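Please predict the structure of the following assembly.
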Amino acid sequence: MKILIAAPSSSTVNMVRNVFTSMKVQNVEFVALDSPDEIEDLADDKTVVIVDWEYTDDTGTEFVIAAKKKNKKIPVLLLATKQKAGTTFSGMKAGASGVVNKPIEPDDLVRSVAAAVKSTTEKKQSVNVEFINPFIDATRNVFSTMCGMDVVRKKLFLKDDYKMLGDVSGVMGLSGTACGSVVVSLPKELACKIVTKMLGEDLGTELSPDVCDGVGEIINMIAGQAKAMLVKTKYHFTISIPSVISGHGHEISHKKGTPNIVVLFEADGTPFALQVCLAPVESE
Amino acid sequence: MKILIVDDSSTMRRIISNTLKTIGQENVVMAGDGVEGMAMLESNPDVELVLSDWNMPNMNGLDFLVKIRETKGKDLPVIMITTEAEKANVITAIKSGANNYIVKPFTPEVLQEKIGPFLK
């Protein structure tokens, strides 16, 4: 296995190497990348690219784009402090498949790299996404009606880990004919902006209880709208009371064994994520 | 006229209250669930219109509606404002005594239009 590491500081390469050495993982070649152009020559089938999310400009995103351009199957992981969790959307949009938190937990890094390699070699899981469009339509409608904002759908991908991409997430548990969860995860700035627009009152730029309550109402409306569109299908569900979780790099679990679909959107040029994990009860 | 807004989301209570202000309705009292809503009706017998959410903790909007009809009869108008958009839910609410039904998300215009006939 080859791990290509893009980082503004050479210490990151040593840090990653030391983690694998301490975990006694052998047959791993570590290569420091100086420029996105080098990926073209270095990458092969058993390559993982790790991008340290510490660049002060767009270099990190350029490394992700270069890796996916070389081979769209190459897994790319972002190495980010929890404080930077809300800024990793651009890397995910460019094609990264996951985030590993800094300071690095050895177990977490090795497991994430192994999962990334496995995802490129195993037969692709067949995922039925017929239920996702109602959630996408509901998201567009809620943002448009309540905030006067047009949202653009970007990327759609599967995500196994529990790390949320935003600084604040609204969660709705789904139960009934189908069960699972739907989450909207937003960077702090966008959360403040949309709740300010909903209320017509300036709520500032911090994650206040008012902003968090507004995020809960957003996921409540998205889930409610999608529920109505899925009536009389095997994906119909009931909703209850939303929860809101905030904090850099927070995690929300989803039902194991059920595909967890992430849809990236942009509102006013700022990315946010909708995460839907839903399966009919009878198929379990 | 005095209007009672019942919703567990403070954001939604303020959105509805702000919209009511734009049409000159500033005499508003609020509650966070059906239990608080019943208490508010006891302490504010001059409430002439109730706007209630459906999914709330402690006592949901449908139970709150039924309780109002049991204790106060049919004279007090109750409008449901909810994310429960399915036809079956609308029918259940109307059969239980709701005077109108507004689905979230809504525009201020829709809110004004549906509430309008009940304003004094």
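Residues 65 and 98 of chain B are 7 Å apart (CA to CA). Helices of chain B lie at 10-22, 34-43, 61-72, 87-95, 108-115.
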